[in-house]
Known about the structure:
The structure holds two protein chains of two kinds.
Chain A: H1 7-12, H2 17-22, H3 33-36, H4 39-46, E1 50-55, E2 61-65, H5 66-83, E3 90-94, H6 99-111, E4 114-117, H7 124-134, E5 138-141, H8 143-152, E6 161-164, E7 177-179, E8 201-207, E9 215-220, H9 224-233, E10 242-245, H10 252-264, E11 268-272, H11 278-288, E12 292-295, H12 297-306, H13 309-312, E13 321-324, H14 331-341, E14 345-349, E15 359-360, E16 374-375, E17 381-384, E18 399-403, E19 413-414, H15 418-422, E20 425-426, E21 429-430, E22 434-438, E23 444-449, E24 454-456, E25 459-461, H16 463-471, E26 476-486, E27 490-499, H17 507-520, E28 529-532, H18 546-554
Parallel strand pairs in A: 1-11, 3-4, 3-5, 5-6, 6-7, 10-11, 10-12, 12-13, 13-14, 27-28
Antiparallel strand pairs in A: 1-2, 8-9, 9-19, 14-15, 15-16, 17-18, 18-22, 20-21, 22-23, 24-25, 26-27
Chain B: H1 2-16, H2 41-52, H3 69-79
Amino acid sequence: MSNIESYExxxxxxxxxxxxxxxxxxxxxxxxxxxxxxxxxxxxxxADKKALIWEGLGGIEKTYTFNDVRLRSNTIxxxxxxxxxxxxxxxxxxxxxxxxxxxxxxxxxxxxxxAQPLFSAFGDESxxxxxxxxxxxxxxxxxxxxxxVRKILDQMPYLKHIIIVDYEGKNPLRxxxxxxxxxxxxxxxxxxxxxxxxxxxxxxxxxxxxxxxxKGVKHVHYSLISQYLTTKWVLDLQDDDIYWCTAxxxxxxxxxxxxxxxxxxxxxxxxxxxxxxxxxxxxxxxxRKITVxxxxxxxxxxxxxxxxNIIKEHDLSSLRHLASVGEPLxxxxxxxxxKVFGKAFxxxxxxxxxxxxMLTNYPGMKxxxxxxxxxxxxxxxxILDTKTFEPINEIGKPGLIGFKPGxxxxxxxxxxxxxxxxxxxxxxxxxxxxxAYIDNEGYxxxxxxxxxxxxxxxxxxxxxxxxxxxxxxxxxxESAVVAKPDDVNMEVVKAFVTLKPGNEASDxxxxxxxxxxxxxxxxxxxxxxxxxxxxxxxxxxxxIMRRLLHAKEWGEEIGDISTLEDD
Amino acid sequence: MExxxxxxxxxxxxEYADDEDDEIxxxxxxxxxxxxxxxxxxxxxxxxxxxxxxxxxxDKATPEAFDTVNKIVVLVKEFx
Lengths: 567, 80
């Protein structure tokens, strides 16, 4: 029997207090995610249960029980406290998927500080804008990433501590750097956990928009309520499960469902910290006997490309439940997974700002391949008219997705950017920025974004950010960036550029520009293709018409071009 | 052949190695080892195509074929 039992029944008698009761939380109590994910599980008698089975490069393995997680998060919290980190200070986690990232996340929360996880592949500029916006006090990182921090250190007087978790003593530590070895440190048995309340800030995740700098999405400790219940009902995690969430905690899936959800339920989870290959992933599932697998459409499509023979070479019979997140899961991938694994990947729809799943497919509910599913109980969702923002009652008519605010994991604001936060609401609805329609059985179907943000492999990339970085290249005069369709990643970044006098278009220059962006921003933001142009299409007022370039890439109608400069 | 191996290895170290202390050899796993991610593979493919004036079809540019410098050399030779 699945945890949710019956979706229809849950809808009828739903109240978020179901999760509050299960977590022994009463309104006004203190609520600290760090405590819920470690100390509470130990108190329930699961101190010796495996919490994390980690595998890294070269077959290195590490295993931590819930008591280990409790002690290590205590130790990190204590170390940060001794450095002078205070309540609500921002502490950035800038690491690969190593155990220190997971324990560090809980340690920061136990201290009452705000965890700011950032994707470790970010280049120095991407890192700088995010640390600058958050005015981050400390960063926990690895030797391999510290050079990016050093490069921008002079511009960050607020960053007081750079904590290196794998310092080997080869080269001397530099200004503001301090070494911390989690496993070798004297473990702190008792740490006075911060008595954070429901609305105390917990996590700051950064996400990209069409314009402006990345936005810091502020979450609070009360988010636990919906993260706990969605994990239980949608991912269906049960006590003897071995769970694998493939997401990096640099992104919201990796914290909501790669740390908070499973550990608040006391579930054993596995982490594979190596690059992607079909062989290594299947081997991992076989070796670890993974039962519940939460992954992303890009990975699933890459596995499809690797073929079925490789699947037959592995014993994947432990798998009992599969789910997907990050971008719409195409019908072919759902059908394929049912055929080769005997289970369909259930698509889940949500975003950094929502903090937890919003529209999703459920164990036991009829699956319509390609559909986003139905609203989670307690979520009021609708399709809205694009002009009036009133709900559309007509079946199959496209509009904007809207959610009534008020679920526990909803973001509380954009960090130091309340104005942009307010713009996310219309007529009492929160707008995630996607278009969809509802069919005759109440299933939601994704149509596309309502803005120019590029969703590549489930990660949002701001065209503005890439365009700005391109202009910093010595050869680039003008730039425009759009999404280009891609079989595996759904979309990839494509750039159109004009060159400054004295520069000639060439393949070598294209490669140089690609690498320039990759290092400055991130591999995700690197244009997979650069097209040289003599001029970029502009409006009469001089604004580059991204819309026209986008239409060209997608083979769409160009629409009204009456305002084109050259028209 | 040796020259090609050396050139590719040097390029990989210069462009993709984060940790100066990590030793990258001709057999170091690049993709499955997390040194070159799937997005960055596109720039590595572009480097090979530009450097050796070849065109590698997308269906041949798999993570497995790009996983070590030795494997990359085999792939490049196929299209020379």
